[in-house]
């Protein structure tokens, strides 16, 4: 989709962390935006920021765990703009803890927001995209979906699911004018990692580093404009690491352990556990 000007994007998780930067990057391309987020997450201030860039903006408050609200997002966006050209599945939940210590409700909540909602929203927007022979789905995954870090079982599983979901979409709809991309950032100085660092004081491993949010937002735009299957955003090259892990799983497991990611999330889990206990 070379020219985004005048087209419409529906963006979930719009006001938190990465969402604000993605919204701004899409608006700079002249897109109309339907911005969805949970209640009370600063959508109105985001609307003012995006409107200054010249695009039309629709603000939608929604809980992505409810199918009826997903349908409402699509219906109201279509009513306002007449079409949805791009869907960016950005909303996400994360809970860092030893798996056996998770509350039962944590698991369906994470799966519901991170994987089920993107799949259901995609199903809702696909028919009109296929009829027009034009449309793009962007799924915001994570390097966690490629490496399976410790203390991140539900989150990592959903992010791995988004990677596979995207690959299947591309295979199914090849040649139809409709496509999909997946973005896999590492530790980003906004959103989930920024909150973990703020809450626990734990910093990302030096071997992996962190990325500012702007390159991630630009990666979304680039993926849409150039129909890229997958974009990894990380300050250090990690594709060779994941290629090695695919060819030699035991070696890959060792190398991933050496990055310090498992220890980082272990420290985060302990810090959060202590906070919950009031210690």
The class by helix and strand makeup works out as alpha/beta
Written as H for each helix and E for each strand, in order along the chain, the element string is EHEHEHEHEHHEEHEHEHHH
Count of extended strands: 9
Rg on CA atoms, Å: 18 Å
CATH topology description: Rossmann fold
Low-pLDDT windows of residues: none
Q: Major beta sheet, specifics?
A: 7 strands, parallel
Mean pLDDT: 93
Q: What is the CATH architecture term?
A: 3-Layer(aba) Sandwich
Overall geometric form: globular
Please tally the helical runs, counting DSSP H or I stretches of 4 or more residues: 11
Strand proportion: 5-15%
How many domains? The number is 1
Task: Report the top-level CATH class.
Answer: Alpha Beta
Helix content: 40-55%
Give the end-to-end Cα distance, rounded to a whole number of Å. 52 Å
């Amino acid at each position: 989709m070379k020219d985004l000007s005048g087209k419409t994007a529906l963006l979930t998780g719009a006001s938190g962390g990465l969402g604000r930067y993605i919204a701004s990057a899409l608006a700079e391309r002249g897109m109309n935006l339907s911005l969805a987020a949970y209640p009370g997450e600063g959508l109105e201030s985001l609307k003012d920021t995006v409107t200054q860039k010249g695009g039309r903006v629709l603000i939608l408050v929604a809980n992505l765990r409810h199918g009826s609200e997903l349908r409402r997002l699509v219906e109201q966006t279509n009513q306002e703009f007449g079409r949805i050209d791009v869907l960016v599945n950005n909303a996400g939940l994360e809970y860092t803890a030893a798996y056996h210590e998770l509350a039962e409700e944590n698991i369906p909540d994470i799966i519901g927001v991170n994987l089920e909602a993107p799949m259901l929203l995609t199903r809702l927007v696909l028919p009109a995209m296929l009829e027009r022979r034009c449309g793009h789905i962007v799924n915001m995954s994570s390097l966690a979906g490629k490496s399976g870090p410790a203390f991140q079982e539900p989150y990592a599983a959903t992010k791995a699911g988004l990677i596979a979901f995207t690959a299947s979409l591309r295979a199914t709809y090849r040649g139809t004018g409709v496509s999909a991309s997946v973005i896999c950032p590492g530790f980003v100085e906004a959103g989930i990692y920024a909150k973990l660092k703020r809450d626990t004081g734990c910093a990302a491993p030096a071997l992996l580093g962190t990325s500012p949010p702007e390159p991630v937002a630009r990666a979304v735009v680039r993926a849409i404009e150039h129909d890229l299957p997958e974009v990894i955003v990380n300050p250090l090259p990690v594709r060779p690491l994941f290629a090695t892990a695919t060819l030699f799983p035991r070696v890959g497991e060792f190398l991933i352990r050496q990055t310090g990611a498992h220890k980082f999330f272990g420290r985060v889990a302990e810090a959060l556990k202590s906070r919950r206990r009031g210690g």
